């Protein structure tokens, strides 16, 4: 299957007192990668980015669950982080977005976000359309594997 790789620039404010990317900042960096990969302006719904963002968008997304695992610290660099992303599951109204962020010696961060698609007019979850399923089908693969599962 296909993974998307999205470069995300680090800001000095993303770094903690130890010179590493702050754990809370990492969630924001993953959000920036997710928005760049899947969302577009209503006028530019192309290239797999079929969820429109902004005032004209009919769909909002709400985060239902996030899980993140830090395997190694990431130090500040002027080179962007290369966030690898794919989908693990497409449910009726939700998708699981998986991430891996490589570090100097392998994967440094693994994460997964469950997004619920919501109709902005009603505020209720809406079903994933066949067009969306078709556009995202090539991005579906096995979910990210965490070393420690919260379900144990």
Name the quaternary structure: single chain
**SSE sequence, one letter per element:** EHEEEEEEEH
**Largest sheet descriptor:** 6 strands, antiparallel
Strand content: 35-45%
Distance between the termini: 29 Å
User: Shape from CA axes?
Assistant: globular
Mean pLDDT across all residues, rounded?
88
Radius of gyration: 16 Å
The amount of helix comes to: 10-25%
Number of extended strands: 8
Which ranges are low-confidence, i.e. pLDDT below 50, for 5 or more consecutive residues? none
The computed structural class is: alpha+beta
Number of helices: 2
Structure commentary:
- The chain has about 150 residues and is of the alpha+beta class.
- The protein is built from two helices and eight strands; from the N terminus they run βαβββββββα.
- The chain has helices at about 25-40, 130-135; strands at about 5-10, 40, 50, 60-70, 80-90, 95-105, 105-120, 125.
- Strands 1, 4, 5, 6, 7 and 8 form a six-stranded antiparallel beta sheet that branches. Strands 2-3 form a two-stranded parallel sheet.
- A hairpin with a 3-residue loop joins β5 and β6 (about 95-105).
- The chain is globular, with a radius of gyration of 16 Å.
- It starts with a strand and ends in a 16-residue tail after the last helix.
- About 20% of the residues are buried.
- The mean pLDDT is about 90.
